[in-house]
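COURSE: Structural Biology Practicum
ASSIGNMENT: Worksheet 4, Part C
STUDENT ID: 0417
INSTRUCTIONS: Below are two proteins. For each, the amino acid sequence is given first, followed by its structure token string. Answer the questions at the end about the second protein only.

PROTEIN I
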Amino acid sequence: MEFDAEVPYGHGKAMFRIMKENPGIYCASLLNFDGDEMHGPPMEITLIRGIRGWTGSESDDVLINVLGNLIETHLIKQYSKQGSKK
């Protein structure tokens, strides 16, 4: 699984490519950021789906949860497409 996701970050927008590494573990790699580079997002973030939510390799809980929610939305869309093909 791989997809691109745009998220607000500071006074700009960040585009990440999200890739599945293992079950429940994803990597988000920064593709582009149109805001202040001095206050930009990290280049790579590891996201881990836990029982109570998302954790990650960065301390920015808002960014971790936004990316985690986008992963969940993408997975739901992917599974619903597979289900409609049957």
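PROTEIN II
(use this one for the questions)
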Amino acid sequence: MKIKKNLLLVVIPTVTVLAFVIFFACRNRQPASADNAVQVGVILPLTGSLGYEGTRMKDAMDLALSQLDGEKQQCLKLNYEDGKFLVRDSISAFNKLNEKGMDAWVIFGDTPLLGMKTLLEKTGKPVLCLIGAQDLVKDSQTFFHFSGSITLPAIENAKFAKRKGVKTVSLIYLNEQIGLEVKGAFEREFIDEAHKVVASEGFDMGQRTMKSLVAKAIAPNPNAVFVYGYTTPYIEILNELKKVGYRGMILTDGNLAAVKPDLIGGGEGVWYADFDFGDGCENPETKKFLHDMHNIYGETASSFSAFAYEAVRVLSTIIHDKGKTPTDIHSGLLAIKDYHSIFGVISYRDNRELEIPIVIKKATWDSAQVVND
């Protein structure tokens, strides 16, 4: 009995020590892969007026990560914070993430980016900017415009209107920097001796009643109305044009796809310049992405979520193939040429601007048709 007791006195402490050794070894081993991963700070509007869009983007990024093979999946970690699409909240989100030490950034929205621009520049880390106004990032070597140009669809709309014999156009646009850029691009392409802008009406994001604005825009009886905006005011403008029975051509851009369920008749008959993505697109990879987003998350993916999805795929490939340092990521982004994405074949120019194909679509009640004329 004495021997057994002595044996127990030896075995129990030994087992206890071994248990602690194994516990701490495992605990220390698990963060090792996370420590080796590139930490990506992602600031999206997960709540607020654009919460629906930010949520779709987050889900798209999680989907992209889940579909990567093991090595690529482990090479980066996505760290989300809610910026609410407001400058103050976006700066707060940045501060939380920056304290943890991010290696790269993904930022959505022109206004939030503008508010954080100086802070992001000080980090010296590459920033993938899911924004429309590329002029916001053209003067910074660490910023990469990772979404479609907001001005190119406007230019293509203007060209298309001319081809369709449109002589007069009224413009309705968001009265902010991004909207003014779009308005200016359309005017520069459309206006000449034979083609005129006969009315120009700006609106604010907080504006809710659009009846008088639309009435002013169509008062000169234009051949077409070009609308640029997003969220509630944008929806109300497009619906008001339908309600009053406007018979001219209604032109807009890919923002229509994000609000299609809220439009009268699904926006049927509206013409819009868009990426080769979503409704009317025949790319098998695009169809699979849309199918997965719907089946897994119950969501209709927008072009914003498509860019978020590709941001993860591109970053993981660069990190896996080129390296994990900010310099590796920077040079890897610049080296993107003829990459087959879910919104067409893309390449980076020397000015860190993406080249992305644009097509003209005509909305139907449940989809869209790509037109070639």
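ANSWER KEY EXCERPT:
Q1: The radius of gyration is 25 Å.
Q2: The chain has a mean pLDDT of 88.
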